[in-house]
C-alpha cells in the first residue's frame, strides 16, 4: 500500500509533533506554517490524500479555503484546535471538515484520528455520490414520463409503445434514456411554439 501523503498546516507547533508522528507511521508529510500557505494552490499542486491543520481556531479565511478544497478536490480535512465554542464547531462541520479535535494533539492518537477521518470521509463521499445518483435517476424518470406523455399524445402510442420507442431511440443514438427524453421534450416544445 502506498504511503499516505499528508499536507500539514501548522499555526504554532514548533516541535512539529504532527509531522513527526505521521512520519513515524510511514506517511509522507509536507508541513507549512499557516501564515505562508494558500492551501488551495498547494492542494492543487501536491494532490495530498489528507490535509491536517493545527491551529487555535479556524478563521473565516481558513474555512473558505476548506470549502473550496472540498468543492474542487474532495479530500478529508482534519483540524486540531483549541477553540471549543459551539458556533465554531458548527461552522467547521458546515465547511466539510472530516474531524475536528479539540485539545487532542497527542502523538499516540494522531495517526488513528487521521485514519478514522479518512474512513469517515470516504463513507460520507460514497453516500453523497449515491444521493446524487438517486436524484439523477429520479430526474431522468420524470423526464421519461414527460417524454412518454408527449409520444402518447402526438403519436397515439400506448404507454408501453411510447416507452419502447424511447428505448429504441436511446439505443440507436447510444445515449442515456434521460438524455433522449430531454431531446423529445425539447423537440415537442420547439414544434409547439
Automatic annotation (TrEMBL):
Organism: Methylomonas methanica
Response regulatory domain sequence ranges: 4-118
Start and end residues of each ANTAR domain: 124-185
Lineage of the organism: Bacteria, Pseudomonadati, Pseudomonadota, Gammaproteobacteria, Methylococcales
Name used for this protein in its record: Response regulator receiver and ANTAR domain protein
Superkingdom per UniProt: Bacteria
Pfam name, any one: ANTAR
Gene3D superfamilies reported in the protein's UniProt record: 3.40.50.2300, Winged helix-like DNA-binding domain superfamily/Winged helix DNA-binding domain (1.10.10.10)
